Amino acid sequence: MDIVIAGFGVVGQGVAEVIQQKGRALSEVFGEEIRIVGAFDSKSCEVSQDGLDPGALLKRKSMDGRVGKKDSDGDPWRILGGIDYDTLIEVTPTNIVDGEPGFTNMMIALNAGKNVITSNKGPLALKFKDLSRTAEAHDARLRFEATVGGATPIINLSRELLRGERILSIRGILNGTCNFILNRMKEEGLPFAQALREAQDMGIAERDPSYDIDGVDSACKAAILANAIFGLERTYSDVKRTGIRSVTEEAVSLAAEEKKVIRLIGEISGKRLEVAPRLVPIGHPLSIGGTRNIVQIHTDLAGEITVAGRGAGKFETASAILSDLVALLKENQK
Amino acid sequence: MDIVIAGFGVVGQGVAEVIQQKGRALSEVFGEEIRIVGAFDSKSCEVSQDGLDPGALLKRKSMDGRVGKKDSDGDPWRILGGIDYDTLIEVTPTNIVDGEPGFTNMMIALNAGKNVITSNKGPLALKFKDLSRTAEAHDARLRFEATVGGATPIINLSRELLRGERILSIRGILNGTCNFILNRMKEEGLPFAQALREAQDMGIAERDPSYDIDGVDSACKAAILANAIFGLERTYSDVKRTGIRSVTEEAVSLAAEEKKVIRLIGEISGKRLEVAPRLVPIGHPLSIGGTRNIVQIHTDLAGEITVAGRGAGKFETASAILSDLVALLKENQK
User: Fold this and answer.
1) Is residue A190 part of a domain?
2) Chain B contact for A31, CB < 8 A?
3) Residues B119 and B87 occupy one common structural domain
4) In angstroms, what CA-CA distances link B278 with A321, B125, B135, B179, B281?
């Protein structure tokens, strides 16, 4: 399997490290050599049909702040044009306005019949229909476990392990930052603004926290789950959305009196697509604190299955990408 | 796929109902007809190379207390001898002394190169080596998701979705009955004997509760996980085991003062194989009450992934068997 990595920030570097660590073992298990034949970031590009050394890419990025020797001049595909590859790992940053540059990268690959694995929520939450139809038309595979829940295997669990079940609904905490803030408000009796500042100081919330606290990130993930698991074609603006800005100390302490906590819950089913603060009884799986993501998958036979894991992080995201990569390798064995 | 169902108790009936409900849809998805060509219980046997109607089997069992018209006289394989089939669904009751009749049923199938799907813990916890080597020697597949955690997809999640990861350890609650008892002791301040009686009255614990409360059931599951996920060859007697009989009210209330609960935890890794009561901080995922099963899977990349679900029940167990059936159907597409 010849791979191009688009984006060489934290996630792209995590992917390169994982391939460096595990590539040889996976190659042996699946009887297929795994090579990185191209990698680019916003400034630069590096290609070699014979395979690039992940260690050298990581070293250059760390020393020079760029993955490649060649300037990409805003169009890495010009340089990549001559390269033969099988799979694009698209890990440029999420852009929720127009999905770029991820959307274009993915469409170039899919139109050429190449498989895409991505952690990039923007294109999936904005233009799922275009991507999935292009993939289908060119018999390419599009996998995106890493877009929802970080290391938590929500999509592959639902689509593969529960394939014989009818999935009725999914409910869960899809954003660790909101959960951290809500939990601190409850545990320490903090007002929202102070809990937010604390999260910002700890690097859990961004300086501009709107993407998290207004529920945009959760709504993107809810839309992706609606598409991936319920076969819908939704964008994140189809999600009914209320963030946590207006959750007051009083509301949190009133909830606590009733042995409940407030959690930002995404609810996804064939009929419902919403992100909003909800009361959750203490002791219920969705009452967890911390920054983990957690979902409950309700099905006709299993009842409900709960799955939780780390929602973000370099290796956690790389873990989800790896699980998609392994799925492709396994399919290639057919 | 032509199936023989061995055992037609609660789980066997659940499997027949699921095949009745979903068989046609699955046949269409995977391009392979799914038929029950044989079924037997302790008394009787029914076979038809053209396929049996699951509804008729269920009706006879419910009316006459037996699945088949023919007496099996203790040797259903005599009647089944002439039948061609692909997969044995072995769902006779767990027997932890010698694994019978499940072990013999499985060995007959595996030696004939037939795949086996089972919910029967006995043979897996006692004679895993024999089973796995026989399967390997005859190129047959042996799947047993339903032996651990009921509907909770612990084995397939670990072996398939996390296949690229290094699994470092698994810790969790593998027996819902013990968890119910421990939780009632804590919530209501009940002594062990009273919480046990309550569980027995509710049908959660057996009249002879030893299998659950002495940790035998958990130890069987721990051994199966050690074999399935860590590549070991352990039996349940290799598991260091302490049950919950000697957990006192005082211990539970002392734990509560430290914001902890006592839970019967199975711990499985390459080096450790133990079931024992442990202190778990309230709020930790493994502090859950109720009868659910829950495990935390620790890996090199994902950190830890928690998965929880219903540990027992007719359709819950059938759900796990279905997931194995779907995996076989998917592999057959190759």
Assistant:
1) yes
2) no
3) yes
4) 35, 23, 37, 12, 10
Q: Is the pLDDT of residue B81 over 90?
A: no
Look up the pTM and report it: 0.95
Mean pLDDT of chain B: 95
What's B33's domain CATH number?
3.40.50.720
Q: Does the beta-carbon distance from B283 to A285 stay under 8 Å?
A: no
Residue B221 bears catalytic tag: yes
d(CA A17, CA A267): 35
Check whether residue A262 and residue A215 sit in a common domain: yes
Q: Which class for B126: exposed (0-12), middle (13-18), buried (19 or more C-beta within 10 A)?
A: buried
Q: Tally the domains of chain A.
A: 2
ipTM: 0.94
Q: What is the CA radius of gyration of chain A?
A: 20
Best of B29, B145, B161 to disrupt the A interface (most A CBs within 10 Å) is B161
Strand arrangement, sheet containing A87-90: A70-71, A44-52, A35-40, A2-6, A87-90, A115-118, A142-143
**CB distance from A303 to chain B under 8 Å?**
yes
Name the A residues in 304-323 with CB < 8 Å from any B CB.
304-310, 313, 315-316, 318-320, 322-323
Q: Which two tokens stand for residue A198?
A: 């604390």
Same-domain status, B76 and B178: no
Does residue A142 lie within any of the structural domains?
yes
Residues 163-192 of B with CB under 8 A from A: 163-165
Token pair for B289: 């009450």
Identify the CA nearest to A38 among candidates A17, A19, A23, A57: A57
Same-domain pairing of B109 and B182: no
Q: Do A302 and B151 touch (CB under 8 A)?
A: yes
Work out the pLDDT band at B16, boundaries 50, 70, 90.
very high
Give catalytic residue positions of A.
Answer: 221
CB B37 within 8 A of CB B70: no
User: Per the CB < 8 Å rule, is B308 touching A285?
Assistant: yes
Query: Is residue A125 in a domain?
Result: yes
Q: How far apart are CA B231 and CA B243, in angstroms?
A: 26
Same domain, A129 and A187: no
Question: A55 by DSSP, 3-state: which?
Answer: helix
In terms of domains, do B281 and B234 share one?
yes
Q: What is the spatial distance between Cα A132 and Cα A130, in angstroms, rounded to a whole number?
A: 6
Choosing from B61, B221, B314, B330, the catalytic residue is: B221
Q: Which residue segment(s) compose the domain that A189 sits in?
A: 164-310
pLDDT > 90? residue B267: yes
My answer on whether A305 and A176 are in the same domain is yes
Place of tokens 């076979």: B47
Residue of chain B whose Cα is closest to the Cα of A316: B302
Helix (H) or strand (E) holding A170: strand A167-173
pLDDT of residue A326: 96
> CB count, 10 Å around CB of B326?
21
Task: For residue A36, tell me if it sits in a domain.
Answer: yes
Please tell me whether residues B304 and B187 are part of one structural domain.
Answer: yes
Chain pair A-B, CB pairs under 8 angstroms? 130
pLDDT for B282 beyond 90: no
Q: Which CATH number does the domain housing residue A251 bear?
A: 3.30.360.10
